[in-house]
Design a protein that fits this description.
By secondary structure, the protein is an alpha/beta fold. It contains five helices and four strands; from the N terminus they run βαββααβαα. The protein has helices at 14-25, 55-62, 67-76, 92-95, 102-110, and strands at residues 2-6, 29-33, 47-53, 78-87. The strands form two sheets. The chain has a two-stranded parallel ribbon. The chain has a two-stranded parallel sheet with strand order 3-4. Helix 1 links the parallel strand 1 and strand 2 (29-33). The radius of gyration is 16 Å and the shape is globular.
């Protein structure tokens, strides 16, 4: 079973809507609405694999200096021997400039 976490209720942004649409189409996917700042969120639930996709990059925007605590919470939900995969620390648009170099432009075009 796949559990996707979002802080955005359906109808508030396109990402949350996409997650909800995928979950509706499959009984193997569940979308959980929640906030990692809440100490009780995902308490006593454990996973073999946790994929944090742009989660750390957005932490500073919504939870200043919360990255360490967030990491503790992500590690807490891992089963023993599980994997934590961290992807996309921050959006490329914030660190790359399409007009600066061909390499930056290539990365932005691929994304």
């Amino acid at each position: 079973k796949i559990v996707a976490v979002t802080a955005k209720p359906k109808g508030t942004d396109s990402y949350g809507d996409v997650l909800q649409s995928i979950a509706t189409a499959s009984s193997d996917i569940e979308v959980v609405l929640g906030n990692w700042r809440n100490e009780e969120f995902m308490k006593d639930i454990y996973f073999d694999v946790v994929v944090a996709d742009y989660l750390l990059g957005s932490t500073e925007l919504h939870w200043r200096y919360g990255a360490d605590e967030l990491m503790d919470r992500l590690l807490r939900v891992l089963k023993p021997g599980g994997y934590l995969l961290i992807v996309g620390l921050e959006p490329y648009e914030l660190v790359l400039d399409r007009t600066f170099s061909q390499q930056d432009q290539l990365v932005l075009d691929i994304e």
